[in-house]
Amino acid sequence: MYLKLTDEELTDLLRKNDSVALETLFNRYYKPLCHFCAVYTKDYEAAEEIIADLFIKIWDGRSDSSILNIKNYLFTSARNLSINYNQKKKDPVDSIEDISFQNHIFEDTHTPFRILSGTESVSKILRLIDKLPERQREILLMSRIDQVDKRKISEVLGISIRTVETTLYQSIKELRRMLKDSTNLTSRG
């Protein structure tokens, strides 16, 4: 019976202390949330722990909950908790700068100048990506940095593949514009 209920119906039952409603929501969203969270944490075990804690918090706050859309709430909370996890960790797993540097450090064809200028370029691009609107930045990073395919991005974010493609196109177009503008400013200065 519970499997056929909508998210809204389950949320209402949850407010009435129905533990089976929580279990149903948990079974419905646990895996997609863990995958989504792991995109940010780069650590699936940490993602599982974050999501388990999230469901505990939902259960603890069930009586005074004013959640209207549980799916949006879960994914937004998962993203925020993942970002908090990364900030607390203070030990970046593998930043793009580290990967770029590690890939080129032992190659004889790359001079120290080229290595540094390549790292500076990556840093510049990352700073520009940070200026993109949140959804564009999120989809661009998932697609191009984390190598998540468009279908998976659409599942994780709960949007259509077409929306993913359009947003990705817009973010790349905007990033190119910002790169061009910053290059023009540098060459003038």
TrEMBL record:
The record's keywords, sorted A to Z, are: Sigma factor, Transcription, Transcription regulation
CDD domains per record: Sigma70_r4
* The keyword Transcription belongs to this UniProt entry's keyword annotation: yes
Could you tell me which Gene3D superfamilies the record lists for this protein? Answer: 1.10.1740.10, Winged helix-like DNA-binding domain superfamily/Winged helix DNA-binding domain (1.10.10.10)
InterPro entries (UniProt xref): RNA_pol_sigma-70-like (IPR039425), RNA_pol_sigma-70_dom (IPR014284), RNA_pol_sigma70_r2 (IPR007627), RNA_pol_sigma70_r4_t2 (IPR013249), RNA_pol_sigma_r2 (IPR013325), RNA_pol_sigma_r3/r4-like (IPR013324), WH-like_DNA-bd_sf (IPR036388)
Q: Which residues form the RNA polymerase sigma-70 region domain?
A: 25-89
Q: Which NCBIfam families match?
A: sigma70-ECF (TIGR02937)
Q: What is this protein called?
A: Sigma-70 family RNA polymerase sigma factor
